[in-house]
Design brief:
Blueprint lengths: L1 H9 L7 H17 L9 H16 L8 H11 L5 H20 L5 H20 L3 H14 L4 H10 L5 H26 L2
């Protein structure tokens, strides 16, 4: 990917090269987000991830139906204290756009998943800012949009005023089942 990035940096990117260049930046950002190098100072990896995803986001600005890079960038911004307000503003805009697509029945399954993820990110920002009731509202919106998202269910349980054992059980069961499903998929793909 870094070699592809160097090649794209050395040429004028137009037309058919635009999306591959954007996705090169996107995936480099994911690598920096998920795997911090041994020689990388704490926090530096997130700054590098942010830089790659901002580059990808800039390249994808003309792609109105593309939300994955924007939502991933927002996630990175939530991890950086100084960028959290920016993340909140951006996630509010993404939610608005995705809800409009959903209401017009023009959204696809991936966009619906990103809407749920955006609700969770918005709730996480509120939770970090100790706005527990506001966080609960966003988590409930995520839960209402899906029947089996463990993170939505457990987040609602975490922000509820009263302990709801049934909600905790359901969330933990969904989490356990998602792990089993992942194990089955990985095993079948690996031929195990």
């Amino acid at each position: 990917l870094t070699q592809a990035q160097r090649i794209y940096a050395s040429i004028k990117t137009i037309g058919d090269d635009l999306l591959p260049k954007a996705y090169t930046e996107h995936f480099l950002g994911l690598i920096k987000k998920n795997w911090r190098g041994e020689a990388t100072a704490p926090g530096m990896s997130m700054d590098e991830a942010r830089s790659h995803l901002e580059n990808a986001n800039t390249l994808l600005q003309g792609e109105k139906q593309q939300f994955l890079t924007r939502v991933t960038l927002i996630e990175i911004l939530t991890y950086i204290d100084s960028q959290r307000e920016r993340a909140k503003n951006q996630v509010d805009q993404v939610i608005k756009e995705l809800e409009e697509l959903h209401e017009q029945k023009k959204s696809n399954a991936n966009q619906h998943s990103l809407l749920i993820r955006s609700y969770l990110l918005c709730g996480n920002i509120d939770f970090i800012n100790k706005q527990i009731d506001a966080a609960g509202v966003h988590y409930k919106r995520a839960e209402a949009a899906t029947s089996n998202n463990a993170y939505a269910i457990l987040s609602v349980a975490q922000t509820s005023q009263e302990v709801d054992l049934e909600k905790w059980r359901k969330g933990l069961s969904c989490l356990e089942n998602s792990d089993r499903k992942s194990t089955r998929l990985n095993s079948s793909h690996l031929g195990i």
